[in-house]
Design brief:
Layout lengths: L25 E6 L9 H10 L4 E5 L5 H11 L4 E5 L4 H10 L4 E2 L5 H10 L3 E2 L1 E2 L2 H9 L4 E4 L7 H9 L6 E4 L8 H5 L7 E3 L5 H6 L2 H12 L16 E2 L6
Parallel strand pairs: 1-2, 1-9, 1-10, 2-3, 4-5, 6-7, 7-8
Helix pairs in contact: 1-9, 2-3, 3-4
Amino acid sequence: MAAMTDAPASPIPSEPLPSVLALGPVLPVVVLDGGADPAEAVPLARALVAGGLRTVEITLRTAGALEAVRRVAAEVPRAVVGAGTVLTAQQAVAARDAGARFLVSPGWTDRLLTAAREAGLPLLPGVSTASEVMALLERGVEEMKFFPARAAGGPAYLRALASPLPRARFCPTGGIGPDSAADYLALPNVPCVGGSWMLPPEVMRARDWKRVERLAREAARLGAGGPAGTGAGGGSVSAGGRCR
């Protein structure tokens, strides 16, 4: 299969991102297998960007993840690459040094919030209760990850939070697929959703980047109220093809 090429682009600006949630309706979540070549993240990111999804979250769950972030940041200038599953201050610094533009965590601590601010990167801290949302609002954080979205109550729960906590805005992640993404995006407090249904295992095993591009394009249409495409739903999928 012919390699995809990235169109010429200006260097990534050094100023902070105004809002991670405003970069697109879907945030692709990539989990590299332990033995996967980090270089595979480059054609994968190019395919996602070509399909209309600029942001790419590469989770720090395997040894090659930081190198994958570094490669995408250096070789796919049109992508806005971030690091996911950030759990410690050390990981926040390492992700920044690798070229990550934003951080995502399944939860949050005051130490992690401080580390992200000191690193100069926006953080989407994970929440699943109203009390956690209130605590973050007290700390000046208004953009959050709702995780695990399906298990924590899904669209109905987020709809219930919209009235009492109108300043909070969410990127739900966890168990979201093409059939449920539109239900989340219809909510007033959900600008985007996170998932990896555009990276089904059989497609990743075949390294079918053109298919990834088509699935990404279908996902990008969700932001315009378009119908969801067909694909593997729910969870996150590793670049080696295992469902997470």
